[in-house]
Amino acid sequence: MNEIDNIKINTIEIHGGSLIGETGDLVYKGEYQSNITNLINKKGNYSIKINLSHENIDSDLYFRLKVI
Question: Whole-model pTM?
Answer without folding.
Answer: 0.84
